[in-house]
Amino acid sequence: MSVRTLPLLFLNLGGEMLYILDQRLRAQNIPGDKARKVLNDIISTMFNRKFMEELFKPQELYSKKALRTVYERLAHASIMKLNQASMDKLYDLMTMAFKYQVLLCPRPKDVLLVTFNHLDTIKGFIRDSPTILQQVDETFRQLTEIYGGLSAGEFQLIRQTLLIFFQDLHIRVSMFLKDKVQNNNGRFVLPVSGPVPWGTEVPGLIRMFNNKGEEVKRIEFKHGGNYVPAPKEGSFELYGDRVLKLGTNMYSVNRPVETHMSGSSKNLALQTQESIAPNPLAKEELNFLARLMGGMEIKKPSGPEPGFRLNLFTTDEEEEQAALTRPEELSYEVINIQATQDQQRSEELARIMGEFEIVEQPRPSSSKGDDLLAMMDEL
User: I need a labelling partner for 88 at 20 to 30 A (CA). Which of 19, 315, 325, 354 fits?
Assistant: First the structure.
């Protein structure tokens, strides 16, 4: 497992989240000024300097539920609100889109180009906000500095870590099904045509060499595909042609997008349901959430501007039905964290949890630490 995977996972999933929210804001005819405010607030929070500092520290990946909690807080960083069903659908679309991109990356290193495609499009959302643009450019420089010198083997480890993270997700997405890049069981179809990875040759030829390194024989074979040489390598500079289209905004043209659980996903969820027994990584996950959320600077809405609810479904009835029919095992609503009490961690959580503005009835509790863990369980 690579300890350099988290920033790439977070930024790419965040980019997909922004693409989807932008599309739904347009589809629901939200006034332009409100839509811009929502995107600006979320992007500003997402690329906050302190938050990025925590994100770029070498660390293991944590559970999907832990990351989902971070994105839920991020999605509610402005005047827009999402209910549980819409947030579930948003996270499903985000994860399946990036999983598809990772699977189709020609080279492991190209996951960095996918990330740059996301950042390039995000900068288009905030072209009139120079301060936020500077935040995104600073993140680009951090990515270049940290990942620019990694070897092919290190990128392969990053790609493998990402695929392990996504391996149990087989959610069907209507757009992928219509484009015939996903099967009915939720698994993606890998192409057997198009450009080969940069720096490689079109398959179909075997060369044989003697012990002196001299070519002595050639054998051609039929590979069954329709491959062509890569035209050029994508640019890893701040501005440039990425060549690779993975990671660009596939919602730029309005298309209804639905998600469905495949039968295998439901069965797998039942088999892999999280145990109620203590998790050996629980304390680390709790500290991970504390650090990341502590770095988020959520701006309180100022003035009398009213908020609004965004629906990721076509109608409210569809949204209500989705909430009722979603398997409980696949819901990310509750994070079960079992950890021993630690005074420093409890103080940090107390500060962070105070920012969530959760109003609840007083309850009997054996200790302050138990109270804090229970509060986190209910997020």
Answer: 354
- Ranges of H-type helices in 56-151: 64-75, 84-104, 110-125, 130-147
* CA gap 313, 318 in Å, rounded: 6
Helix, strand or coil, per DSSP, at residue 164: helix
Q: Quote the pLDDT of residue 292.
A: 63
Specify the pLDDT at position 341.
42
Segment 38-51 shows an average pLDDT of: 93
Q: d(Cα 55, Cα 14) in Å, to the nearest integer? A: 13
pLDDT at 319 over 90: no
- Pick the range with the lowest mean pLDDT from 261-270, 304-313, 363-372: 363-372
Angle at 73 between CA 65 and CA 69, to 5 degrees: 5
Residues in the chain: 379
CA–CA distance, 294 with 350 (Å, rounded to integer)? 11
Residues in CB range of 348: below 8 A, 6 or more apart: 290, 294
Residues 278-290 have a mean pLDDT of 55
Whether 237 and 253 have beta carbons less than 8 Å apart is answered as no
SS percent in the chain: helix, strand, coil, step 5: 50, 10, 40
The three-point CA angle 176-177-181 to 5° equals: 60
- Could you give the angle at the alpha carbon of 224 between the alpha carbons of 220 and 100, nearest 5°? 130
For the chain, give the mean pLDDT.
79
Longest dimension (CA), the chain: 82
| Residue 270 amino acid letter | L
What is the C-alpha separation between 184 and 176, in angstroms, rounded? 10
Task: Determine which of 104-118, 239-253, 257-271, 302-316 has the lowest per-residue pLDDT on average.
Answer: 257-271
**pLDDT per residue as tens digits for the range 198-226:** 999 999 999 999 999 999 999 999 988 89
Calculate the alpha carbon distances from 61 to 105, 146, 162, 234 in Å. Answer: 20, 17, 9, 28
**DSSP-derived secondary structure letter, 366:** S
Highest mean pLDDT among 69-83, 159-173, 308-322: 159-173
Q: Tokens for 293, please give them.
A: 């959320």
Return d(Cα 264, Cα 261) in angstroms, integer. 8
Dig out the tokens for 178 from the structure.
């219509």
